[in-house]
């Protein structure tokens, strides 16, 4: 799954990695991004609107859903294109969520030890997401997850779908709506790029937000 991540790269670095022209903006470094908060995403607000980097709510509930409908933070790659709840967004409202890494918890001796997972080269990671207009008229998103690959399997059986550089532009292309076409042009990045280390359990409280959270910790 993906339930917590960090984003501290400045806009110029993200813009360079994305290789797409966007309006410059100032980003506040965040080391403990939790669900139910506003997060940075890259998307087309409508089919014909230019690409923007703006804020979306991390929690997906489309406008047409009933009041007590679920508000998932993740959508699985196995069902996102076919589920009634997600397939419209998958076809028409895909987005990218930039991150410098994400967190997972490994059970150890009856406790859960958080780990930080990121690229070995420390470059930004682009997480595949979907978004929809929420009942309040504001955008909400879910991050796609897939079976864990590489060393990520040592920590959790799922991981966010992180895309390779060549897949970013087609993932954002609003004219690509067919599931099979999208599957052929969009690919996850190499599992060989992933590394991880254990971090402090201070991460467990979303109110804790500092660079210390991504530093290696030897004890609980």
From TrEMBL:
Gene3D superfamilies: SOS response associated peptidase-like
Enzyme Commission number(s): 3.4.-.-
Ranges in a coiled coil: none
InterPro entries: SRAP, SRAP-like
Keyword annotations of the record: Covalent protein-DNA linkage, DNA damage, DNA-binding, Hydrolase, Lyase, Protease
Family statement: Belongs to the SOS response-associated peptidase family.
Name under which the protein is recorded: Abasic site processing protein
Organism lineage: Bacteria, Pseudomonadati, Pseudomonadota, Gammaproteobacteria, Oceanospirillales
């Amino acid at each position: 799954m993906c339930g917590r991540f960090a984003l501290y790269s400045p806009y110029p670095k993200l813009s360079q990695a994305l290789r797409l022209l966007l309006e410059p903006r100032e980003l506040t470094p965040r080391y403990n991004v939790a669900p139910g908060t506003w997060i940075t995403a890259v998307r087309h607000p409508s089919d014909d609107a230019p690409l923007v980097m703006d804020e979306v709510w991390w929690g997906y509930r489309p406008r047409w859903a009933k009041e007590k409908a679920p508000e998932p933070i993740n959508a699985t790659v196995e069902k996102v294109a076919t589920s009634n709840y997600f397939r419209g967004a998958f076809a028409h409202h895909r987005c990218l969520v930039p991150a410098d890494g994400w967190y997972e918890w490994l059970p150890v001796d009856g406790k859960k030890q958080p780990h930080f997972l990121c690229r070995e080269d420390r470059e930004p990671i682009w997480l595949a997401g979907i978004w929809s207009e929420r009942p309040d008229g504001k955008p909400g998103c879910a991050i796609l997850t897939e079976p864990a690959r590489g060393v990520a399997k040592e920590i959790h059986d799922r991981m966010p779908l992180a895309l390779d550089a060549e897949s970013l532009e087609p993932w954002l292309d609003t004219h690509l709506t067919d599931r099979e076409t999208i599957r052929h042009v969009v690919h996850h990045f190499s599992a060989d790029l992933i590394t991880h280390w254990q971090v402090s359990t201070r991460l467990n409280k979303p109110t804790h937000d500092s660079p210390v959270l991504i530093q290696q910790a030897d004890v609980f």
